[in-house]
Amino acid sequence: MSDAYDDLAPVPPPKLSGKALGIGLAVVLPLLALLAFGFGRDPHVMDKPLVGKEAPSFSLPRLADGQQVQLADLTGKPMVLNFWATWCVPCAQEHPNLVEAARRWGNDVQFVGIVYQDKNEAVEAWLDRHGGRAYPTLIDVNAKAAIAYGVYGVPETYFVGADGVIVDKHVGPIPWPVLQDQVAKLRGES
Amino acid sequence: MSRLLGLLALLLLALPAVAQDDRGEQGDQGDELALGPDVARTVGPPSGPPLVGAALEARTDSMAHVMRCPVCQGLSIADSPSESSRNMKRQVRAMIAAGYDDDQVLLYFETAYGEFVRMVPKAEGFNLFVWIFPGVALLGGIGLVVGTVRRRSNPALRAALPASARQAARDSDGELDPWLQQVREEITRGT
Q1: CB–CB contact A49 B110 (8 Å)
Q2: Considering CB atoms only, which of B31, B36, B71 is closest to A148?
Q3: Who has the most CB within 10 Å: A13, A99, B57, B180?
């Protein structure tokens, strides 16, 4: 009788074997690393695959007279291409910066506004209201240029060197110091 | 009444889409199938025959399901009602109509938007982990379960089990448990 009960002596709590620990860590650590990698990235930071590549060409009607303007017509000096729209609130915030920059450095740098998903009459009214015809405005019909440039949303501003290569891209309303800095780079000042 | 409320809810849901329809300077009908800038420079000449009609729409729809809408949360351009998605889908249709194949269409958009535009990431580099790990984890789990069951059911392998597992195996196996055997004998004897 006692022999039978001897077999039921309390079983010590299981010890964690080195092998089990090793397997557990081998499974859990890569998952933790993956999570750290995923959560460590700002989901709002978008890829800029076109930076360092030649700016996609375009042929778009000019708001002022409907004439087709090609990228090739504008090259020869550095460019600031600003994609914007009248329905975009941050575009109104950054607009005075672009107008002021075009006024200061327009002789050295070509500023171009490309209107995204908008109506011509709305653009005319908006420009009247915000006092900005400091540089040409082009209409991106069916957003073909925006797609070629990989525009996620407006405003987005591309900085193109005199050689036609995209130097950088700014997503969102561009603050004056950033614009100043980017234009200085385009003009070879820094 | 509930049907009326349902209709009202549908109408309210549709309003943003109706409003968005009015946004954007659209080209004339001829522009519908006009290619975007630099298509040939980016992806080369079309590698297939031009498509029209139902075949064009079917291919466009199938491509639109594997491309991510840039302004949405995890929606394909086929599922998104946004104007951006509609413009992208229009460009996809134009490329397929001109004879560009699926890889060329994806390459054109990937050149501008990066790999983000693919709903299904390419199985290369770091992405391989995402493709391989679930399979490896599943196989490992199956192996673990099969191995444990085999060890518990095979007396020769049972010695390899930890003490707690041996105890559990004994508890579940009346033939080998002398205490249980004794209880059964006592019950049989009626004592």
Answers
A1: yes
A2: B36
A3: A99
